[in-house]
Design brief:
This protein has 380 residues and is α+β, with helices and mostly antiparallel strands. The chain has 13 helices and eleven strands. It starts with a helix and ends in a 16-residue tail after the last helix.
């Protein structure tokens, strides 16, 4: 709570006078919007106030919807983003199965989109998809996230418009990487500049590459992998005179028993150049752990939000606010699961995300708080 108050003070969001909806309460309200996505503002606030014992519920009442909307606008998005940056961290606990590989903290990067309320403001700020048949039904926001693989904790995210590429967003996200980590990524991400910046953090990289990525063979290693030079494109060579990256390449096939003669070829590139540190077989066996971030995104977009198509917010500033509240809600559930697994010496993957979410919501519930009398709005 002290950390949240400090962020609010830094963002100049602390209340100048006593309100029924102080900024700290609104922080938790925005998070609770994602825990209870299918109920109205006032019902969310009733559930929330039952759980905020440290505020002393006697001084807080359920306000009308317009007061909650106004309080959200006063809060803005900056405090929610800063709180996520401050509090969302990997647990980095070697005792949790799946968190480490060869003493390296396993993380993964991926991107996705979120559908937004179809308003002029959201469409102008975020854009929407289009094809030969016309525009998409909803404005879309694009984001890139980095997750701790063993716990599914999203500890870094960057939000952008639909027209921002995942590579562009990733260049901001990877700044949180560092020595002692190993980052997994799908074949969308390998680009010369992004790889260069990610490798410069000191983080080990194991990324899938597209089959058409131009690599110059340097040396075949004893266990079948090979070293290669990855050259920048011709424009970069002329403009910056950049040297090629030396990467190690691991290629293998995955056989689908249901599809004859259609085995899928996987090509991994890695900064781990020495087979004695990690063999080709070990890296091939490790790469499927990348799918854990797909599960994290599914938990955030689908399970947590109970399949709702769009976020609630009709204004771009509140879209961003709700996005950070969504990530903080997911983080709270996943951190509780990780701590529970640690206490029982279990792999967090053995616990049900859906069940854990329901436990948190049940703990939050209690006797309903009264609404304001008809025609009388609570002061904010």
């Amino acid at each position: 709570m002290t950390s949240i108050q400090a962020v609010l003070a830094d963002c100049k969001c602390l209340a100048r006078r006593e309100r029924d909806l102080p900024p700290a309460v609104m922080v938790f309200f925005v998070i609770a919007l994602s825990l209870f996505p299918d109920v109205g503002y006032q019902s969310v606030l009733r559930w929330l106030l039952n759980g905020l014992q440290w505020f002393g519920n006697g001084g807080l009442t359920v306000c009308v919807k317009s007061s909650l909307a106004n309080a959200r606008q006063r809060l803005g998005s900056a405090p929610m983003r800063r709180i996520h940056e401050l509090l969302a961290r990997p647990l980095a606990n070697p005792q949790l199965p799946g968190s480490y590989w060869k003493n390296l903290l396993l993380v993964a990067i991926d991107g996705s989109t979120l559908a937004l309320q179809d308003t002029k403001d959201n469409a102008a700020a975020y854009g929407r998809s289009s094809n030969q048949n016309g525009d998409g039904a909803w404005p879309l926001a694009r984001f890139v996230a980095i997750v701790e693989v063993g716990t599914h904790l999203i500890f870094k995210a960057v939000l952008g418009t639909y027209h921002d590429s995942e590579i562009t967003l990733a260049r901001t996200a990877i700044k949180c990487l560092g020595p002692g980590m190993l980052c997994l990524a799908d074949r969308l991400f390998p680009g010369f500049e992004l790889w260069k910046e990610a490798a410069a953090t000191g983080c080990a990289l194991v990324w899938r590459a597209k089959a058409g990525l131009s690599l110059t063979h340097v040396k075949t290693l004893s266990e079948g992998s090979w070293l290669a030079h990855w050259h920048p494109n011709e424009k970069s060579r002329r403009k910056r005179r950049e040297a090629p990256h030396l990467v190690r390449v691991v290629e293998y096939k995955l056989r689908d028993k249901n599809r004859q003669n259609q085995d899928e070829v996987y090509r991994l590139i890695t900064t781990i150049l020495d087979p004695a540190v990690a063999s080709a077989m070990e890296l091939a066996a490790l790469y499927p752990q990348r799918w854990e971030i797909e599960l994290s995104i599914k938990e955030t977009k689908t399970i947590l939000r109970r399949g709702r198509i769009t976020l609630r917010s009709k204004l771009p500033e509140l879209v961003e606010q709700e996005f950070w509240g969504l990530l903080l809600a997911h983080y709270a559930v996943r951190k509780m699961m990780a701590q529970a697994a640690l206490g029982k010496a279990l792999d967090p993957d053995e616990l049900s995300y859906q069940r854990s979410l329901e436990i948190i919501k049940a703990k939050q519930s209690g006797p309903a708080l009264p609404s304001p009398p008809k025609g009388k709005a609570a002061s904010v």
